[in-house]
Amino acid sequence: MDLLVNQTTNVSGNGADWSGGxxxxxxxxTFDGATVTLEAQFADGDWVACGDLTIFTAAGFxxxxxxxxxxxxGVVTGAGAGTDVTLKIVR
Length: 91
What we know:
The protein contains no helices and 10 strands. The protein is mostly beta strands. The protein is globular. The termini are close together. The strands form 2 sheets. Strands 2, 3, 5, 6, 7 and 9 form a 6-stranded antiparallel sheet that branches. It has one domain: Jelly Rolls (Sandwich), CATH 2.60.120. The protein has strands spanning 2-7, 11-12, 16-17, 21-30, 35-41, 47-49, 55-56, 60-66, 71-77, 84-90.
């Protein structure tokens, strides 16, 4: 599931339905000062970070295990002129 693809500016991505279970979160690209965060949406509409291991300031990966009741999105903050990042989850 691609959440952000070659994102070059600050953005809160569109929410995508998560079908539940385990996945590997992969964040890659050129950060140039950016922070990329994986967020989940609760039923009340609030978005929250999925945890410290899914906040990236450099390329990396983390494992995720969530129920199927969540929407997920990527958020980019602090993007620099050279930022070009991708955030995805693979099974």
